[in-house]
What we know:
The chain has helices at about 1-10, 15-45, 50-55, 60-65, 75-80, 85-100, 125, 130-135, 195, 240-250, 270-280, 290-300, 305-315, 315-320, 325-330, 330-350, 425-430, 450-460, 465-480, 490-495; strands at about 140-150, 155-165, 175, 180-190, 200-205, 215-220, 225-230, 250-255, 380-385, 385-390, 405. The protein is α+β, with helices and mostly antiparallel strands.
Amino acid sequence: MIRGAVRRVRGAPAAGRRGLLVLFVLVGAFGAALTVGTVAAVQWTETTDFCGRCHAMGPELKAYETSVHREVPCVECHTEPGIAGWVKAKVNGTRQLVEVLTGTFPRPIPAPDHALLPPTGVTCLKCHDIGPLIANGGPIRLVLRNQYQPDEANTRDAVALVVRPVGFGSPAAQVTDASLQPVRGETVARGVHWHIASDVEYASADPRARRIDYVAIQEAGGEREEFIAADAVTVSSDVGPDLARLRAEGLRRMDCIDCHNRVGHGVPSIGQAIDDRIDAGEISTTLPWIKREATTLLSTDYPSEADAATAIAGLGDFYAQRYPLVAAARQGAIDAAIASIQSVYALVATPDMRVTQATYPDNLGHQASPGCFRCHDGAHYRVVDGRVTGEAIPSQCAICHTFPQVGAIESGVLIGQRPASHNDPLWVFGHKAGLASDDPSSQSCGACHTRTYCQNCHRTPAVKVSHDDMVLNHANVAREVGAAACAYCHQPAYCAQCHAEPVLPTGPAGTGGLGVLRRTDAAALARR
């Protein structure tokens, strides 16, 4: 066929040959343009701009643009490598595009099922070396920040703690290779990243694992430890059927995104966002009740961003009516606070997508959502020979960090190892024996502790609780000291073992190992 075409071209008149040549050139140019255009179009569909604007991902895009991964394209984390992964992503993307064109997409957009995301071995671990994170238990991190109370003076508290890489008394964890598979016979000091350096599996009926009912740990020596949530138990003396039911739901290997689930789309809690704006000088603490009013405004559901902006602008009326002298003298500060609060709302909420700050819980930590307490809530118990024991997954503060120091004065925090006597779980209750006061300067405690380290804790209502009386008369004790005192150490899940619907006012953010949110700072968050 080709030879015949060539002979015809050679035998054709000159004008005809030129016409055919022009035709070949045009066809070739069109084909090249089509190829280049197709490649460019495909490449554009893999950009963040396309993903964020063509898939109704406005809230995710806003959070992404302020995240530490804002330079990483979406496809790096959401698309498996290779042709199969590319085809799968395009098929899924086409379905989503049809939903956008027809207006049938869900509001809010559900967070992806982590089981359907590419394995972290080809995403997270492609850039992050797990070695330094688990070597000798991992690095030490000092956390220092301010938080402001929702009172008239917007009282500042300094928060200081040290994230300890190695939990006290924790055994060594099994070493894994680059794909997070256990390496036989190799162990490492157990730190925060022990969860992915070891063989840990869990069961959750929620595809996003916001609740965990079962945890299994395969130790290096072959022993398998199993833990079950208290409210998943039917008969404590025979939990075999419960374990079988939970295993049947499917077990997942714990990996990076079980904790870092919002690493590319993280949004600060409302309380933290306000505190940060105060520290940045955008919101002045000379405005009475500004922390409380800002929290209330940001925690309210609005039909649109315009309605939210109007409501927040009403803050000026609050000061004009309640504090006319402040309104007259500090109008510039009020206007600046209004503008800052409006910008925070645009970040944490998207009304047209029905997204609020509580829509996508962040599992990293335990301040704005259960996070760590999905397992470390004091109500996940070890199972031995088919029976539930009294041994729970550890939930003490010192498992991951020092007891947070919260107070008006910046307190010294300890970085080194603590004495063996402090490893006793009841140490916090018995350490006062033999001490004359909470001033360590003239006592043996002074070798490690500063005065503020002790006094910041002793100023909390938690120290007023008599746990002997709590056993049989805890309702009266709670009324006397205030239920918020309980929340410094206990999660609602712990109380739910006896109470159907425990409601505990929480302690100051960052205080205690378990009580972490002020209710006023979490008005729009899911009740825990």
